[in-house]
Amino acid sequence: MNNDNSSNSASGAHPDISAIIPVYNEAGKIGRVLDVLRQVDRLREIIVVDDGSTDLSAEEIQFAAQSDPRIQLVVNPVNQGKGQAIFLGWQATESRCLLLLDGDLFGLNPQHILDLINPVLEDHADMAVGQFKKGRWASDIAHWFTPWMSGQRSLRADLLRQVSLKAAAGYGFETALTMAARQNEWRCVRVFLTGVWHLPGESRRGFWKGLKNRARMYRQISSAWYQAGGLQRVGLRPRVR
């Protein structure tokens, strides 16, 4: 693929896809992600949901918005979790397709974005899931063993209606999304994001605080799997007809 402006605009300057980025205390990182997205003409909107940050994330987003009118800041005064932030961002757009990204990515470039959104824009898939490759070993291993945990995705916006809101709470969003895809037989493809990575929670929050946060994350993921019908999936609970 060619990632120059003529390629980006092959289907019109702004095809019907918007980016949604949930952010919680990502000052010093979110600006870098927005710099990459600003180079991708194919995005109609770039919606950043500040989910109760206590650092300078909102100011960093507002600064980036001065250079690109597509960037919109949506603020949650109190942290409500990633799932709620994404659904709030969805309410702010009428785009047919969505790009979902984490706000703390390293190594991201415009070609990664095009590779991730084109399968959905061109109707080759209902959802594309990005998998880290050759970035940092910790991120690569995490994606290799738990690819359904990736926060880098593109999908048809209407499919979010099939996602359990209860299961998507907190850290459960990716699990709830993956369960909805399996249960409703979405057409899904994997896209390798070579050189992309992000820091584990232990590095950002300190070891013990990060470890505690990771334990809470896994509890919420397990809850999301259960709430989204995981027992039915493995045949341990009869389906309700």
Structure explained in plain terms:
- With 241 residues, this protein is of the alpha/beta class.
- The chain has a single domain (5-165, 184-199), classed as Spore Coat Polysaccharide Biosynthesis Protein SpsA, Chain A (Alpha-Beta Complex).
- Helices cover 39% and strands 17% of the residues.
- The chain has helices at 5-8, 30-37, 57-65, 82-91, 110-121, 137-145, 173-183, 201-205, 207-227, 230-233, and strands spanning 17-23, 45-51, 71-76, 97-100, 127-133, 153-156, 188-194.
- A seven-stranded mixed sheet has the order 3-2-1-4-6-5-7, sandwiched between helices.
- Helix 7 packs parallel to helix 9 (207-227).
Shape: globular
Order of adjacent strands in the largest pleated sheet? 3-2-1-4-6-5-7
CATH H-level superfamily title: Spore Coat Polysaccharide Biosynthesis Protein SpsA, Chain A
Total strands: the figure is 7
Number of separate helices: 10
Give me the strand/helix succession. Answer: HEHEHEHEHEHEHEHHH
User: How large is the share of residues in beta strands?
Assistant: 15-25%
- Largest beta sheet, briefly? 7 strands, mixed
Q: First CA to last CA: what distance? A: 46 Å
**Broad structural category:** alpha/beta
The top level CATH class name: Alpha Beta
Q: Supply Rg.
A: 17 Å
CATH architectural category = Alpha-Beta Complex
Number of domain units: 1
What fraction, in percent, of the residue positions are helical?
25-40%
The CATH topology annotation reads as: Spore Coat Polysaccharide Biosynthesis Protein SpsA, Chain A
- Low-pLDDT segments: 1-12, 220-226, 230-241
**Residue-averaged pLDDT, rounded?**
82
